[in-house]
Design brief:
This protein is an alpha+beta fold. Helices cover 48% and strands 12% of the residues. Strand 19 and strand 20 form a beta hairpin. About 2% of the residues have low confidence.
């Protein structure tokens, strides 16, 4: 008989909880999102109360050298000798309730799990407002487990229940008292509830652990290597794990006027950002390699050491800092936007997005690639990765591992650019555009990456909706939330029309090639009309040039409305592929819709964003019609944000937030020279006289109104703004000017002004 790779160990509930509290068992889930509903936690305690089995735990003995100094700042008294492989949610439930500690829910809000108990009949409930008002319940059993003995809680409960009954003239019988005492003693005794754990030997590796997990787990789940890494971080770098959690939490909530990772592309989770830091730091995509490195393993010798572990954690610290840098984050997401992708609804693969971020950080931070070249090549690569499904196949980790293996020997920016170019060219061949892509467009999936890339190309090519003057780019703005979207997908061959032809299958009627983006009002108007009827009706008022451009961008074959349906689909797929190719060519040239606008018309038409901000007035509050220092403060922080950004930007005074021209009269200056002089004076006073070297003010007419454009060039050194006795520092983040904290300022200046 072979020696087993595990041993069976018995625990009581109290022993388990003590080992977690001491750090003997590594439990990262207290800081990571807890996905169990509270009702399931209630049922767990109910089962234990009734003496039912509640499953086993699977632990893995850790190889960590306990003699070394704790690198992290956590208060655990021991390093974990056991890592949790299976049973994390149950252990988190048990620990949270018995110790009365909060968990982080999947929305990243902190919450105490309150399980109520009614001693009269031994019933468990999730506490709510009604239960909290009831004297029959112990509102939160955490209070019972915190007691040294059951004597005090039992006496308090009986007294409170008696008082309540007396007030309501309801007697509390002796049998009820005895039943309450019995059930409370039984609940208190759960501390001794027995558990069984299978403890895997430290001699087995990560792949063997994964195999064991899959074989004994009835659900056949895959082992998540990131859980192990986050456990290590909980021990050796707890602050780093917390930073990951905080970044993810803040990415989900928009806070005006504060620099944050909030965006419209992705709500990242810790695993995704961990992959970014590991990918850029270790040039590894497979987390099992990173886990081995962070445990202190030398991949060549196979030996573990504390020195090696500390060295690898230092690398992780550096690259996680870069990955969580807000400026890096938004600079990267702007590239994605510049590539035609307008928000999370157009991101078919979050993994592709994160891997593109890895490449961005390598190019920017490690190889110092020229900013414009980097933006262009990352945009192209992301577009290519989506249209070819580079990282969405059977083994995306394997593909990225290959890519990062190539980049391990790349030592300068030029080599990096060449590698990107070669990767893109090798995938996007003539055969791909002419044959592969049209065939892949034969799908009805609304989440298809090919559909998203087509819409991205329409954005790049500045297309308008079918039969409309509304730009698709504007209509797909994710920051605009309305009852109806500005544009909707319209069946070019309506389903009712196809039904009359005997075509009823959803897969046939909902083909990508049968859809076009139209204004929702037009979609309703067209309804089930035959293509020949509605198409001729809509183009009557259009000139020939506009019709030709519309047909080209919307990939409509000649006389499409009179074609056989299947012939139409085949012809349109090729034309869609041609439009996607044209969009990519324009992207390749670096000329896309969201480039920094120059003319006043372009500035205003493009709306507020990273490069543009509108202000109705310079100094007058439109609500009070009085001069208000807050107005000037808002003006100055916008200018400060542009000056400290990499690209600068334009402040336009005399324009409402929605682009409506208001003019300059309300500010009450005698003439434009006086207004220009006033702005110059407050800039010199609050931002410094040198700042004026980066300011180019001018006045122009727009729709019969006079407006004041303040062009701000990026400064060569950090610029602070005086606010009373304090100094503030603003940057552009998304479409607003955000104030940085002291620590954020230090980090930003290191990134933005490396020579200062």
């Amino acid at each position: 008989m072979s020696n087993p790779l595990f041993k069976e160990v018995s625990y009581s509930l109290s022993k388990l909880m003590d080992d977690i509290e001491m750090g003997e068992i590594g439990l990262p889930d207290l800081q990571r999102p807890f996905v169990w509903p509270n009702a399931k936690v209630r049922d767990l305690f109910d089962s234990m109360f009734r003496g039912y089995p509640v499953g086993y735990f699977l632990f893995w003995e850790n190889k960590i050298d306990k003699s070394v100094k704790n690198i992290g700042t956590n208060q655990h008294q021991k390093f974990p000798s056991l890592l949790i492989v299976d049973g994390q949610q149950r252990l988190t439930s048990l620990y949270a309730v018995t110790k009365g500690v909060a968990v982080i829910k999947d929305n990243y809000d902190s919450e105490n799990i309150e399980i109520a108990f009614r001693p009269l009949d031994g019933k468990f409930e999730v506490a709510d407002a009604g239960i909290r008002r009831s004297a029959e319940y112990i509102h939160n059993i955490s209070s019972l487990f915190a007691a040294e003995s059951s004597y005090g809680p039992i006496g308090d409960y009986i007294k409170n229940l008696k008082d309540y009954r007396e007030k309501n003239d309801i007697p509390l019988t002796d049998s009820e008292i005895k039943n309450c005492e019995k059930n409370l003693e039984k609940l208190f005794g759960i501390k001794s509830f027995p558990f069984t754990a299978l403890q895997l030997s430290s001699s087995i590796d990560e792949e063997q652990v994964a195999e064991v997990f899959v074989r004994i787990n009835s659900k056949g789940k895959s082992l998540n290597q990131s859980d192990f890494i986050l456990t290590l971080m909980s021990v050796f770098w707890e602050d780093g794990r917390k930073e990951l959690e905080e970044f993810c939490r803040n990415a989900r909530k928009q806070e005006k006027g504060v620099a944050s990772p909030f965006n419209y592309f992705i709500e990242p989770d810790p695993e995704q950002l961990l992959r970014v830091a590991i990918g850029s730091g270790f040039r590894r995509a497979r987390l099992k390699y990173a886990y081995s490195l962070l445990r202190g393993k030398d991949l060549e010798t196979g030996k573990f050491s504390s020195e090696q572990r500390e060295k690898q954690f230092d690398i992780l610290r550096t690259h996680q800092l870069r990955a969580l840098n807000i400026q890096n984050w938004h600079d990267f997401l702007l590239i994605i936007q510049q590539s035609g992708f307008r928000g999370k609804k157009m991101i078919s693969s979050k993994l592709s997005l994160m891997y593109a971020y890895v490449l961005f950080l390598i190019g920017k931070e490690d190889l110092n690639v020229d900013n414009k070249k980097l933006n262009n090549c990352i945009g192209k690569f992301f577009f290519m990765a989506n249209i070819t499904q580079r990282y969405t196949g059977g083994s995306p980790e394997t593909m990225m591992e290959r890519d990062l293996a190539d980049l391990r020997i790349v030592n300068d920016g030029e080599e990096f650019i060449n590698w990107i170019e070669n990767a893109v060219e090798s995938e996007l061949t003539d055969d791909f555009w002419k044959t592969t892509l049209p065939s892949r467009l034969e799908t009805s999936s609304a989440s298809s990456p090919f559909l998203h890339c087509y819409n991205a190309s329409l954005n790049i090519l500045e297309a308008k909706a079918l039969f409309s003057n509304i730009k698709i780019w504007d209509a797909l703005d994710p920051s605009t939330i309305a009852l109806k979207n500005k544009v909707e997908r319209h069946h070019l061959f309506p389903r009712k029309y196809l039904k009359e032809m005997g075509i009823t299958s959803t897969r046939d009627t909902n083909q990508i090639a049968n859809y076009a983006l139209v204004e929702w009002r037009d979609n309703i108007s067209i309804s089930d009309e035959a293509p020949k009827e509605y198409f001729n009706k809509y183009i009557e008022k259009m000139n020939e040039e506009d019709i030709d451009r519309m047909c080209y961008l919307h990939a409509l074959p000649n006389n499409w409305h009179e074609m056989n349906y299947n012939d139409f689909l085949q012809a349109r797929r090729q034309k869609i592929a041609d439009v996607i190719k044209d969009g990519f060519i324009r992207l390749n040239k670096g000329n896309v819709i969201v480039d920094k606008p120059n003319s006043l018309t372009d500035i205003i038409n493009n709306g507020e964003g990273l490069y543009t901000e509108f202000k109705s007035t310079l100094r007058v509050n439109l609500h009070t019609m009085q001069r208000d220092p807050k107005m000037e403060h808002a003006i100055l922080k916008t200018i400060n944000g542009f000056l400290n950004s990499r690209e600068g930007g334009n402040l336009v005074i005399g324009i409402a937030d929605d682009g409506l021209p208001l003019g300059l009269e309300v500010d009450g200056f005698l003439n434009e020279d006086k207004m220009d002089l006033h702005l110059g004076n407050i800039i010199k006073e609050r931002l410094g006289a040198d700042t004026m070297l980066h300011i180019k003010p001018r006045f122009e007419d727009y729709k019969e109104k006079r407006v004041f454009i303040v062009e701000c060039l990026p400064s060569q050194k950090p610029i602070y703004m005086k606010n009373g006795n304090e100094e503030e520092f603003y940057i552009r983040a998304g479409g607003s000017s955000s104030k940085l904290s002291t620590s954020q300022i230090v980090d930003y200046i290191k990134q933005r002004y490396p020579n200062n």
